[in-house]
Amino acid sequence: MDKKLKVALVCNIKRNRQDDTEAEFDEMETIEALKKAISKGGFEVLVIEAQGDFLASIQKANPDIVFNISEGLHGRSREGQIPSMLEYLKIPFVGSDAVTLGVALDKTLTKRLVQTVGVKTPAFWLVSKDDKLPEDLTYPLIVKPNAEGSSKGISDRSVCKNKEELAALLNEDRKTYEGDFLLESYIDGREFTIGLIGNGNEVKVFEPMEIIYRKLRGEYKVYSYEVKRNFQDYISYQCPPKLTKEEINELKTAALKAYRVLGCLDFARIDFRMDEKGQAYFIEANPLPGLAPGYSDYPMLAGFNGVDYDTIVLSVLKQALKRYGMA
Question: In angstroms, rounded to a whole number, what is the distance separating the alpha carbons of residues 132 and 250?
């Protein structure tokens, strides 16, 4: 009998639910669901938490491949911390490398890059701690920590209508979040997210999933941390969305361009807003999308596209195995 491949599921486990400090970390239910899905594929699975003793733990475990869902602990490059260590140790892993994860977490850097391949983004500005506010700002605009995920630092108050509101919000947010802030023209339109899977010329682009706001927490449509936590109360999803074939193709083409220019591997999720004229604008890319069953957008949109949870998890793993010549 062939020896089972050993898969190390590397993660950050959520323990703090009082605020959004660990918003990007995973619940134990997600870890167990992933472990079960991978085991169904005939793999041996062990869970390793990405913490201080990680290097010793991963070397002792000696896995054939790592299924990385860790978010890292500190700094703008935190999502690349585990992939960097795995590359150093020459251990294969699922998902994008440290360079792509580092670039994609930096929202401004990502926008600058996707613009080079003709993907439109809303107007945006980067503001550092001691910067004066730019003179050419247009309102309303939305304020986001430049290097956070899972809607950290984004609330129903994050859209500002004038300079006074913006200055007050930045002053408040800087008490909680370090680093720079992205100021982005608010697109008051429809919202879509698109999942991709694969590498090279074999990337599959799923049909877009529309995020429909049934109820607002404030004046504007904001896919905030609180909305995501209570999405059943605020959001409904539709896939495929009610769009023309041309609009769907435009979204899928833009998503694939972003995926490729960012150097995404195995899988990712790309987000867009579309204005009343039907113009799609890139919002952000997530090459490390959440995989919580029944909650995260990526497995949800896969389900709408006819791919169940266990199958999408195994499909992502098999993309990496194929990429490393281990299929």
Answer: 37
Nearest Cα neighbor of 8 from 42, 52, 60, 58 is 58
Are 171 and 267 spatial neighbours (Cβ–Cβ below 8 Å)?
A: no
Query: Long-range CB contacts (< 8 A, 24+ apart) of 57-61?
Result: 58/8, 58/10, 58/85, 58/86, 58/89, 58/91, 59/89, 61/6, 61/8
Phi and psi for 280 in degrees, rounded to 5? -90, 140
- For the stretch 59-94, pLDDT in tens is 999 999 999 999 877 778 889 999 999 999 999 999
Q: Which two tokens stand for residue 225?
A: 């941390």
Q: Which residue has the tokens 């391949």?
A: 117
pTM to 2 decimals? Answer: 0.91
Q: Domains along the chain? A: 6-95 (3.40.50.20), 102-120+188-323 (3.30.470.20), 124-185 (3.30.1490.20)
Instruction: Indicate the DSSP class of residue 198.
Output: -
